[in-house]
Design brief:
There is one protein chain. This protein has 623 residues and is α/β, with parallel strands linked by helices. It is 37% helix and 22% strand. It is built from 19 helices and 27 strands. The radius of gyration is 26 Å and the shape is globular. The structure holds 6-O-phosphono-alpha-D-glucopyranose.
Length: 623
């Protein structure tokens, strides 16, 4: 979703702004813009509807001057994706330029007030009210300035606070003031912003990972903070606490983690990284001695955790699918009741939750608005909350009482792949951990640990099916509908396979529990509608095989993901993708990989942009 960048220092601002925006592209956007300021107070703005390449072309024709600038990628919420609605927006008599992430909830009222005062609106956005309010506050504060001895930073902070005092909603804001040409001002409430500290320069971004290679010294701005940033000074203040000393943290990333390396796009790179990311998710977290998982960040003592009699897992999209897998694996191994809730539902529902319930918010980005709101609601009710996040220092990670990081590295492709498998590994670790606190024997714990250790190698071998999956994609890529069917541990896998295909190829796909398909989806089966079966093993195998035969009997083509030695499925399915066998409870982590590849190759054959699918955003920071 929307992205913010900024630069103030000794270099031409345009260079970082463009590169920074490129790095934020993956979040999903539909227009882009930049603004820069020269020492002689020329505020220049360039904006385009569409991709960054168009902005780049525009800047080649009319470059920005100046070493102080801000930039934005917009994902439309208020008003269409046209140039007039792209950020930066100018306020008043073009005295201020603003870029904004988030949503101003009371913008209708504020706009009416400003229009009544004579401010002219040039866009349909909620952001423009902030621009005009800033211009108004600048005037009002100037009057006061005459009577008080303010520093420039104090003055600008006061202007921003005055402008935002009546604003309801969420924001990450970066602002340029025409008459203060050496500073960028940033403010945050509910939408992330970081300041990268360089040598005689500062960088602004809504995503710390985008600063990799520029600086590893990061200041995470917190809610209600305003910072006035110049080339060599940082003035940070908090609404209640006044001026504060910012704490500079080290960002552990290298520049090449945010490049597609030799891959044609990030999605394929990230699919291929999974042998490593699955290993990273469990690195240092397995104890042979105690036959359990070691999860240092839970911040709850084993005695406290032993009192927990129910888990509530919440998230959105792919993270919700991981939660569902978590329900199966935790209930099986730990015999601990688990409930899974869509965060968007949980935030407004009022389900009865007893005092022994532990809430987990699962989010790759750690910024998803609904997941954050659900977490806050659960905290407000006094429940202990933990986070399973990938992005270190993200809002959800910071606000939860503790949690477990995925350590999957930046995930840039909008459709989640490596974060999903890492989330499943972490949930399997939690199942082991809670299992060992409760009913799981030492021996069973050791068996799970062994199985986990074999997983990265199994993932590596699974990736060898890529060529075969590509040929399958050639056979099926023109189809309009797909069904994905799995059972038990692999029901969430079916949902995730269908979601991947939908997201990046725009083909309609439905995931269903295999046996449920008799109650509706079977009506869709014909010779044009392929069904992707995820074959289990054990006692449930026969049942799923019967479902598969029911589809065949109705003329539906069947693609089956099955184990390497499964000849019975191979005999009846039209196509099979064979995957290595791992422990039952970890098999979904292997099985999902061919489904990611299938979606990927079908999307490529249909000419889709897999990293930036239409209408979707990587991190959905609006409700
Ligand atoms: C968006 C993304 C999905 C993601 C979901 C939840 O819809 O496009 O890929 O699964 O948000 O994101 P989170 O960062 O909370 O896991």
């Amino acid at each position: 979703m929307c992205g913010i960048v900024g630069y103030v220092g000794g270099q031409p601002a345009q260079e970082f702004l463009l590169e920074g925006l490129r790095r934020l592209e993956y979040r999903g956007y539909d227009s882009a813009g930049v603004a820069a300021l020269t020492p002689d107070r020329r505020l220049q703005v360039r904006r385009v509807a569409g991709r960054i390449e168009r902005l780049e072309a525009l800047l080649a024709e009319s470059p920005l001057e100046g070493s102080v600038g801000i930039g934005h990628t917009r994902w439309a919420t208020h008003g269409a994706a046209v140039e007039e609605n792209a950020h930066p927006h100018l306020g008043g008599n073009d005295v201020v330029a603003v870029v904004h992430n988030g949503v101003i909830e009371n913008f209708h009222e504020l706009r009416a007030e400003l229009e009544a005062e004579g401010y002219l609106f040039r866009s349909e956005t909620d952001t423009e009210v902030v621009a005009h309010r800033l211009a108004a506050a600048l005037e009002q504060q100037r009057d006061e300035w005459r009577h008080r001895r303010y520093t420039t930073a104090e003055f600008l902070t006061a202007v921003v606070r005055r402008a935002l005092s009546a604003v309801r909603g969420t924001y990450g804001l970066a602002m340029l003031f025409r008459d203060f040409p050496d500073a960028i001002v940033v403010a945050r409430l509910g939408s992330p912003l970081v300041i990268g500290v360089g040598d005689g320069e500062h960088f602004i971004s809504s995503d710390a990972a985008s600063l990799a290679g520029y600086t590893d010294q990061i200041v995470y701005l917190a809610d209600h903070q305003v910072a006035v940033v110049t080339a060599d000074r940082l003035h940070v203040s908090h609404r209640e606490l006044g001026r504060i000393q910012p704490s500079v943290e080290r960002l552990e990333l290298t520049g090449n983690q945010v490049h597609a390396d030799g891959f044609p796009n990030f999605m394929l790179k990230e699919i291929y990284e999974q042998a490593e990311t699955v290993a990273n998710a469990m690195r240092g977290r397995l104890s042979d001695e105690e036959a359990t998982a070691v999860l240092g960040g839970l911040n709850l003592r084993p005695q406290q955790l032993r009192q927990i009699n129910r888990l509530l897992l919440t998230g959105c999209g792919t993270s919700w699918h991981a939660a569902l897998y978590g329900e199966y694996v935790i209930e099986e191994l730990a015999r601990l009741p688990v409930e899974v809730e869509y965060a968007s539902e949980l935030r407004y529902r009022n389900p009865p939750i007893d005092s022994h319930t532990l809430v987990f918010a699962i989010s790759q980005s750690g910024e998803t608005a609904d997941t954050l709101a659900a977490l806050r609601e659960m905290k407000r009710k006094g429940h202990p909350t933990l986070a399973i996040c990938n992005v270190v220092g993200s809002t959800i990670a910071q606000e939860a009482d503790g949690g477990v990081y995925l350590h999957a590295g930046p995930e840039i492709g909008v459709a989640s792949t490596k974060a999903y498998t890492a989330q499943c590994v972490v949930l399997a670790l939690l199942a082991l951990y809670f299992g060992r606190l409760r009913h799981l024997s030492y021996e069973a714990g050791r068996r799970i640990i062994d199985a986990l250790r074999h997983l990265p190698e199994a993932v590596r071998r699974t990736l060898l099916v890529d060529d075969q999956v590509r040929s399958l994609a050639e056979k099926y890529y023109t189809r309009q509908n797909f069904l994905y069917l799995g059972r038990h541990y692999n029901f969430p896998t079916a949902l995730e396979g269908a979601l991947k295909l939908k997201e990046i190829s725009y083909i309609h796909a439905e995931g269903y529990p295999a046996a449920e398909m008799k109650h509706g989806p079977i009506a869709l089966v014909d010779e044009h509608t392929p069904s992707v079966f995820i074959m289990p093993r054990g006692w449930i195998y026969e049942k799923v095989l019967s479902n598969l035969l029911e589809i065949k009997a109705r003329g539906g083509p069947v693609i089956a993901v099955c184990l390497e030695n499964d000849e019975r499925t191979a005999d009846v399915a039209d196509d099979v993708i064979r995957v290595p066998e791992v422990d039952d409870c970890l098999q979904p982590i292997v099985n999902v990989i061919p489904l990611q590849l299938l979606a990927y190759h079908i999307a490529i054959l249909r000419g889709c942009d897999v990293d930036k699918p239409r209408n979707l955003a990587k991190s959905v920071t609006v409700e």
